[in-house]
Design brief:
The chain is mainly α. The chain has helices at residues 2-11, 14-18, 26-56, 62-96, 105-126. The chain is elongated.
């Protein structure tokens, strides 16, 4: 938890990240940035999907619509926070010459998206109305 708190502080102080270790090959830093941006695109897609479920499925019962929408919105929020935290962790590891950090988040996000997709398939097949 202390590492996470330190990483949050580093989100807003990238000059402190530069003070650690040596400068990695710029190609690696740029690849890290592209990965960060890909995670942000995923977060935006999840947030957009949450709003779409809420706005474009008015016939879906309130509990289902709100539950699916909130699940997608929360996944988008977590994905965006994970993106910046992972970017900092990777940048620090590259500067220190350490192995890149591993994460279970991609698997967790994949399971959440799959569960929402299955729920949407059920909604489409059953054709529930509110």
């Amino acid at each position: 938890m202390i590492d996470f708190a330190r990483n949050v502080r580093l989100w807003f102080a990238p000059e402190e990240v530069r003070r650690e270790g040596g400068t990695p090959d710029y190609r690696f830093s740029l690849a890290n940035e592209r990965t960060f941006l890909a995670w942000l695109r995923t977060a935006l897609a999840l947030i957009g999907g949450g709003f779409a479920v809420d706005q474009f499925l008015p016939d879906l019962s309130g509990a289902w619509r709100v539950g699916l929408a909130l699940t997608l919105l929360a996944s988008g929020v977590l994905c965006s926070l994970r993106a910046v935290n992972h970017w900092v962790r990777c940048e620090r590891a590259m500067r220190r010459g350490e192995d890149l950090p591993v994460s279970r988040f991609p698997a967790l996000l994949g399971v959440v998206v799959a569960v929402v997709a299955v729920a949407m398939v059920v909604v489409v097949l059953v054709g529930w109305e509110g």
